[in-house]
């Protein structure tokens, strides 16, 4: 599904050149659950941004089902994100003045090619994460765990091929973090490919593969027996 070939990302200012990623080679198969770990500043968020086409590599190829996204136009990349990717963020990123239903529906409004009933799709996504009873509430009326479940519903409402999760349990207590991990496991078992950046070794150990990054370089990629 995904193949990164010699991915390098440089950031340049007038006097300084910083290497965020250096010569990353990584393949991820459809249906995997991959955890990316490393200390702060190691490049894991940069890698996730490249996987999500939010950032472009300075050099190298990013193949997604055979197409090199590193060479795509911004218009085509926007279409790719809307059709194939779902994003889950540590800070939830819900829109304060929209209801939970409307926040989740945003995941479909960006897709001009969505066919079928948006209402049914949103209701199905809410049911999957257990927040259907909060559809008419606003984000500030929900707990952190409920907000993250709403964010997950927004990410999955369009049935994306790939879910990218950036510290999805980082702002949650232990119980709510475990609930989010259970949801991610359920999505993975249903066929979703998940790539998760995390600082939590216990959560990383729940993935089917753990990738470790240090100083912008991939230092290990190990399949795990669950």
Report on the structure:
The two termini are 22 Å apart. This protein has a single domain (31-53, 81-223), classed as Rossmann fold. The chain is built from seven helices and ten strands. The model has no long low-confidence stretch (mean pLDDT 94). It is an alpha/beta fold and 226 residues long. The chain has a six-stranded mixed sheet, sandwiched between helices.
Can you lay out the helices and strands and say which pair or pack?
Elements (H helix, E strand, L loop, with lengths): L1 E11 L4 E12 L4 E5 L6 H8 L7 E6 L2 E2 L5 H11 E5 L10 H10 L8 H12 L14 H13 L5 E5 L7 H16 L3 E5 L3 H4 L4 E6 L2 E7 L3
Parallel strand pairs: 3-8, 3-9, 6-7, 7-8
Antiparallel strand pairs: 1-2, 1-4, 4-5, 9-10
Helix pairs in contact: 3-4, 3-5, 4-5, 5-6
Which descriptors apply to this entry?
four-stranded antiparallel sheet, 226 residues, 10 strands, six-stranded mixed sheet, alpha/beta, 33% helix, globular, Rossmann fold
């Amino acid at each position: 599904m995904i193949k990164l070939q010699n991915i390098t990302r440089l950031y340049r200012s007038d006097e300084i050149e910083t290497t965020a990623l250096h010569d990353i080679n990584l393949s991820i198969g459809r249906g995997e659950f991959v955890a990316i770990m490393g200390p702060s500043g190691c490049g894991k968020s940069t890698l996730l941004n490249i996987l999500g086409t939010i950032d472009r590599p300075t050099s190298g190829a990013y193949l997604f089902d055979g197409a090199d996204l590193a060479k795509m136009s911004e218009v085509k990349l926007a279409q790719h994100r809307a059709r194939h990717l779902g994003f889950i963020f540590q800070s939830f990123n819900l829109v304060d003045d929209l209801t939970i239903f409307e926040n989740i529906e945003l995941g479909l409004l960006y897709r001009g090619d969505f066919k079928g009933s948006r209402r049914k799709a949103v209701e199905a996504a809410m049911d999957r994460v257990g927040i259907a009873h909060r559809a008419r509430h606003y984000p500030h009326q929900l707990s952190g765990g409920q907000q993250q479940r709403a964010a997950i519903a927004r990410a999955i409402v369009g049935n994306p091929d790939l879910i990218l999760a950036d510290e999805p349990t980082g702002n949650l207590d232990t119980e709510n973090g475990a609930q989010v991990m259970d949801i991610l496991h359920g999505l993975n078992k249903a066929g979703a490919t998940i790539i998760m950046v995390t600082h939590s070794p216990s959560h990383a150990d729940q993935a089917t593969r753990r990738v470790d990054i240090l100083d912008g370089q991939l230092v290990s990629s190990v399949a795990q027996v669950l």
